[in-house]
Specification:
By secondary structure, the protein is an alpha+beta fold. Helix content is about 50%, strand content about 15%. The chain has a three-stranded antiparallel β-sheet. The radius of gyration is 12 Å and the shape is globular. The termini are far apart.
Length: about 70
């Protein structure tokens, strides 16, 4: 079975390693990124999912900004 291209909130937190980065409230941090449009999401019913492509785009963008 292949990995889903859509991650739950908890899976996105682990994928971004917010749970290991010393962030005291990773759920709130992820929500803030989502609310300000830094990470686009997909809503299916009442649930919000995070496309892996979108998370990778966010990380690539952060790396690019850091390298300037």
């Amino acid at each position: 079975m292949t990995e889903s291209p859509l991650l739950s909130e908890q899976e996105a937190i682990v994928w971004l390693r917010l749970d290991q980065a010393g962030v005291s409230h990773p759920e709130a941090s992820l929500k803030r990124l989502r609310d300000r449009g830094a990470i686009r999401t997909v809503r299916l019913g009442r649930r919000v999912f995070y496309p892996v492509q979108e998370l990778q785009r966010f990380v690539d963008s952060a790396i690019e900004r850091a390298g300037r």
